[in-house]
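Please predict the structure of the following assembly.
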Amino acid sequence: MSWLSEEEIVKHLRSLEKKEPRETFVNGLEERLLTELQMVKKKQAVKLFVWKAASITTVALLAISLTHGNGNDNHIPEEGISTKPIAEPTIQEKLGYDTVAPEYLSRQEHTVHKTESIPNPNTMKQDAPGVEHKNEPASSKTPKQANTVQNTARQQDEAGSSLSELKQIATQRFQQLIGKQQQQQFEINDALSDYAEGHGDVVFVRMLKGIPYVEERYRIGVSKDLGVTGVQYIPDLDRQVDPSMLPDPKKAIPLAQAEQAFAKQLRLAYVEKQAIKRDPFNGQPKVTSPSVQYVLPDSFYIHAETGERVLIDENPLSLQPIEVKPKAESLRVGSLEEAKEVITKQLQLDLEPSGLAQQKGDKQTRYVWENGYVLTEEKTGNVVAFNLSGKSNSLNASVLTEAQSEEMAVRFLEQYLPAGIDQLVRSDVDAGEHQIAFRFLPVFNQIPVLDRVFEVSVDRQSGQIVAFSGDLAHAPENLPQKSDLIAPEMAAKQYLSHTPLQLVYIWPKNYEKPLLVYTQLKQVSRYEFLDATTGKLIDTRP
Amino acid sequence: MKGMYRTYYRDVYQFLLFFTGNENDAEDLTQEVFIRLLRALPQYDSTRSGIKTWIMSIAKHTAVDHYRKRKLKYLFMDKWIKTLPTSDGLPEAILDAKEEKKRVEEALHKLKPQYRMVMILRCIKGYTIKETAEVLECSEAKVKVDYHRAIKMLQQKLRLPREGGWLHELVE
């Protein structure tokens, strides 16, 4: 393929199709927002009323205490009664929001305007403004905002009559659409449906041999007040299902066996700074705590006949630990002069004679030259990243293999890794023709730490390390002990009790016929994690 | 609120769709953006930025947050970047154009998030440098630098499609 000019690239980008969102989604979301707004206003009104009542009570008590006092001009208050002037409620108190204080918000906005980069998660302990990190494990006390998910409350309306009303509206419309006879071939699937107060999306799935065939379904948007707000048909147009080709559900393994398979694939991971409370404005963590969790897969299919896991469009990763002997050498830069030394001698990066400039950011300092940069923590000078972006490569030189490149990367890390990190696992690799990039995680107690990523990029011609990011100065701290963990079977049991596996037919691409599998139809939210010390699913939604 | 939603939902959705490359994710995130917006509306200060810029900056934060979480999850998700689909019997010229567009889109998704957002806002949504800088909460100079670097990276990726691409997305 020939080289594209800037104009051609821009032209291609401009011509990319700007897809419209689904009408059902748009209407449904609007409905939800209006409902939320009403709830917010009600809460606001209640809080304001309570504040007013409290104020009046305080004034009354004050008046009583003054009236019954001993006449002393000093007005020494009786114990327990405040004589402070009654303050005007803050905006938060008036509105009843659990939001960020204005002074914090303006400080954060100011900080954000100064920062020119997305903060490196590895340095969040030092960098992130306003984030409180608790050293005790996330499960040691239940944070206010992180609620254990006991059921599907966010998706299912607990007011049974409201929910059945929505289903009734949807069913009537569905029957009108496809006729009573056809309708009997479908059933409502709650796991795929979405309910909130007064509105929702009701999903009808085709049933074959008594089992949901999820490739064909209807989604009907409904509202208690407006009725049907939209209809979406998700057909399986490419293929016609012949019921005779479907696996016999009677041959399916018992649910318990599938649940065991689910438990077996649960993997432990540490998250050193697990968010347990988030900023409602931008969803960023406000309070973090170390946690150990069982990582939940985004998609999970167990073949109902063989009990084996079915991988669809997936490549399993190998998490073979790599033993390392950290030398804990210092990699830090305190000044422009030191930067030149470190860049040229320690990192052996090409530094143009024309110059190195120093730029101060938010709690970080960047040393920049034409072909690269080095990023450091402002306070300590510890290097947290560098990148030699403009390095040219000779195409005539021999190319290092992936294994050889990985060895170069590990050797580089070993030089600077802090004491206490004895093992790494390689979590990802992205191989290009000229460079190959690796991601490693440190391992403690045979458990990888997910948010302590070391990224190392190797030039495949020279073996030089041309890019890096990570926290080399500190080993992860206060991680929960392995003795506090519960067995994966117990965690899986609790988790599956409210997000159960279901027996369904799927027909993935590149398969000749449908499969009968156990799977979870409800998707895991990015805000949820499965605590490995309690087995509870923690929701950290802002 | 209703008027604001109806005015801006399309912009937010399309931005998130180009950023994630996935319609389900884009819907999910669009919902999240407007829920956050609803809760943060009392704090909106019109002297700091226009409403559109403010909404898009919430979208940007939401997108980055989603991206970070997915990057950690990829360890156990066992998912790789999807491959190009096979041809579907179209005439060659049309197929070439479709393939070209798909390659450009794929290359866009391989850019690091900061560059991706600059390209989406500048080239696809047609924002000015000033507007882009306000949404991304950085300087105009940085927008220009990132734009040129993104063009360079796209040129490299489209010339050599196997070039690696995700390093240091969370830095800079």
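Chain B touches chain A through 78 residues (CB under 8 Å). The mean pLDDT of chain B is 74.
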